[in-house]
């Protein structure tokens, strides 16, 4: 089966995803409405369900669940923003307790900045690995000691994202053309 134009366009958009690294995140502390806009901007291309963007209520729940530290005087810093970006993406493939355990493990194994930057690097390389055709040489790094949870989470999330998009495309094509998947 060939890819439909919408799949090719979506894959091109996915290949252009560039996650902000720690040093690219705002230096100044920001308010909730700014946090929501920034997280949405960086994660919207990677959302399986575009009707459920990040909301202030979700962020408040993450604080209550201790996935994210409490804001200081209603302001959020890099640590908050990085964690919420990671949670927003990974909650599409994992339950919250698993994400919390993974974040805690990773921060204790390294530090917030290195863990977040590695997450971004590996997420982008995983996208390229899944989409770029066999004549390209894109490899996923060997599992690094202490970073396996990040690497496996990124691989699982991107595989799920691509699978669900392709399945949706196949089903739409089947309805539109009247073909069955076995045709």
From TrEMBL:
It comes from Candidatus Vagococcus giribetii. InterPro entries: DUF1836. This is DUF1836 domain-containing protein. Pfam families: DUF1836 (PF08876).
